[in-house]
Amino acid sequence: MTASELTYLRGFSGFAVPDLEAARGFYRDVLGLDVVDNPMGLLEITLPGGAMVIVYPKEDHEPAVFTILNLAVADIELSVDALVERGVEMLRYDGFEQDERGIVHGGGMPTGGWFADPAGNVIAVMEA
Hints:
Oligomer: single chain
Number of domains: 1
Low-confidence stretches: none
Mean pLDDT: 94
CATH topology: 2,3-Dihydroxybiphenyl 1,2-Dioxygenase, domain 1
Shape: globular
CATH architecture: Roll
CATH superfamily: 2,3-Dihydroxybiphenyl 1,2-Dioxygenase, domain 1
CATH class: Alpha Beta
Largest sheet: 4 strands, mixed
Number of strands: 7
Radius of gyration: 16 Å
Helix content: 10-25%
Structural class: alpha/beta
């Protein structure tokens, strides 16, 4: 390999939380994702399709003002109902017409909605 060549081995994303234990429980038990401990004291979440995201502790964490994670589902209504049954509260935003479940249908947007993890990070669930 020469200095002008660039080869990536893999890619992954990451985000912060103030409490790794709360994040572990939420992403594993509520969302049903594969969560494992990383040797560096982080969490690794394997997303559907095989991509990975790391979650790291940050005491002075402030939630992002944007969606940090998007999860695609086959049926948005059934998925939102399942999330709500697991204690998730769907978020509502001014400027978006959302139904009684908090789901946006059309209007130039993907059909879906948003909710927050225990750290206040926003996650979208959208119909594929």
